[in-house]
């Protein structure tokens, strides 16, 4: 379903736009993803709506069939890219799982602010973005996903998330459509 409305108290969640993640090969140029995310950051900040900046600094325990990073990250790997222009009022979440809600206090923070809807952007579409969207949906938030402000390490998994998973979790739209709705809804 295309994006139709935004609640008056909507938060923006920016997933893993950090040095280490953006250095990986992706399906779409990350410069454009950062640029589109900044458009949303500016729009949310101008309206004094909550902004959450998320980085990842580890992984959940447990065995997987794929090799995982098991050592220390290189210096600067977890640093958010400076273009995000982190502000003192932005809420920073460092996660150790794919999604931004598990073990981070993010649900309590957002609900404490009266947030009922989240707009999610970032990298990787099928990992951090999708996991955060699933968790937000399960926790009762309305979910909107800005599909032109996200990418994945793999074009097929990006396409699957955008076309098959996201419509079951919320609404999708472009950054331009979301900014236009921010202006119309008073959010």
Automatic annotation (TrEMBL):
InterPro entries: Isochorismatase-like_dom (IPR000868), Isochorismatase-like_hydrls (IPR050272), Isochorismatase-like_sf (IPR036380). GO terms for molecular function: hydrolase activity. Pfam families: Isochorismatase. It comes from the Bacteria. The keyword Hydrolase applies. Residues 10-174 form the Isochorismatase-like domain. Keywords: Hydrolase. The keyword Coiled coil does not apply. This is Nicotinamidase-related amidase.
